[in-house]
Each structure stands twice: as C-alpha cells, then as structure tokens.
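Most newcomers find our protein records easier to grasp once they have seen one. Read left to right, the backbone structure tokens trace the chain's path through space. Nothing more is needed to start thinking about how sequence determines fold. An example says more than a description, so a record of this kind follows:
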Amino acid sequence: MPYSALIGMAATALLSAGDPATCQRTDQTPVNVRPGGDDQLTLMLVRAVQEAFGNCDGFALTQDDASGYLVVTIKTNVGRRPLGNRIRTYFQAEYVTRRREHRRLAGSCWEDQLSVCAAQVVRHAPSINMA
C-alpha cells in the first residue's frame, strides 16, 4: 500500500474520532440530531452524525424533543459537486441549545467519507453550558 494512502487513512481515522476534549467529558449532554432535508445523501449524513455522537462519551442520543438539551439539524439538502473522479459533499449544521443559543457550521468532505463530515459536526458542538 502506498505511503500516501496510509497517511490518508490515518488522517481519516483521527478526524472520525472527534475531538477527545469534547468526547471525554464526564457529563453527558442529551443531543437530538435531525435532518433538514429528505434526500438520501442528507439522511446518510444524519445517520453518520448520530453514530459519531453515539460513540462520544460526552453526549447521549435522544429522540425526545423535551429532553434535548442540544438539537443539531443538518440544514436543507446536502450539496454535491464533482471534483475530478470524486464528489465533494457540502453541508450546513445548526446547533440550538435548551437556552435557545444558536450556532452554525458549514463543512465539507468527500461523499465516500461522511464520517469526516460527522466528526466536524461533533467537534464543533457547542462547548457552552447546556443547562
């Protein structure tokens, strides 16, 4: 396997893990991840984000709106643009806390590496007081 491929795989693995400071908090913040669009790529990204939050000790996935201290919405349908032989995926995420604080994130990744986009969403989850 070429050296560059190994470096790429290692970088993807690190990005997919999320930010250790965010994932290793002692308290668990309930998080509800929602789609803002209904196309297949958006739903695939939402599933990847849910999995990333689920693998993060600092968050507990919930479907209950009442207990969702943090609501993360992947806004509208995810964008796509062919670049060479690959497809670049563009997304917008909105974070709303129980205190109605809003944050937004725009990000991108390759379509065949949605876990990288998901790691971006987890890494940028608000580190503010959710109470």
